[in-house]
Amino acid sequence: MTALLELDQLGFAWPGQAELLDIPAFSLERNQSLFLKGPSGSGKTTLLGLIGGVQRAGRGTVRLLGEDLGALSASTRDRFRVDHTGYIFQQFNLLPFLSVAENVALPCRFSRLRTERERARHGSVDQAAASLLTHLGLPA
């Protein structure tokens, strides 16, 4: 079975700066959890951007769900991201006029595939959001 995430010879530097990320090899299997910790500026958010296909790696490969994100066009990466990934940020990037559950369910408004998948698994998008929040120990 394909790993959930595979990084191979991954490197990234912002223009005009020293290399921020240098990850020779990393693999995360399905149903495993990962906690990113490090000081401000150490590359945590940049790594999440690379994994989500928001940024492209300077070198190496980011493979998510078996898909080489670097080989996809920008529009195909955008579609892949909305269909398959999601982030729950600590404070920012939440829409203040939506509830927590509505923020979690928001990606389904942009992805028919994601909506159909959550309805099949949980009966509704609202139930899927509630289940995820419960699993993470977060209040709805």
Keywords:
single chain, alpha+beta, 2 domains, four-stranded antiparallel sheet, 5 helices, 17% strand, globular
Structure characterization notes:
This protein is of the alpha+beta class and 140 residues long. The chain folds into two domains: 80 residues, no CATH class; 36 residues, no CATH class. The protein is built from five helices and four strands, in the order ββαββαααα. A hairpin with an 8-residue loop joins β1 and β2. The radius of gyration is 16 Å and the shape is globular. The protein starts with a strand and ends in a 5-residue tail after the last helix.
Instruction: Give me the number of helical elements.
Output: 5
Could you estimate the helical fraction of the residues in percent?
25-40%
Q: What is the N-to-C succession of helices and strands?
A: EEHEEHHHH
**SS elements, strand count:** 4
Q: Which strands sit side by side, in order, in the main sheet?
A: 2-1-3-4
Proportion of residues in β-strands: 15-25%
What's the short story on this structure?
This protein has helices spanning 44-51, 74-84, 100-105, 112-122, 125-135; strands spanning 5-12, 21-28, 59-64, 67-68. By secondary structure, it is of the alpha+beta class. The protein is globular, with a radius of gyration of 16 Å.
Helix and strand topology:
Elements: E1 5-12, E2 21-28, H1 44-51, E3 59-64, E4 67-68, H2 74-84, H3 100-105, H4 112-122, H5 125-135
Antiparallel strand pairs: 1-2, 1-3, 3-4
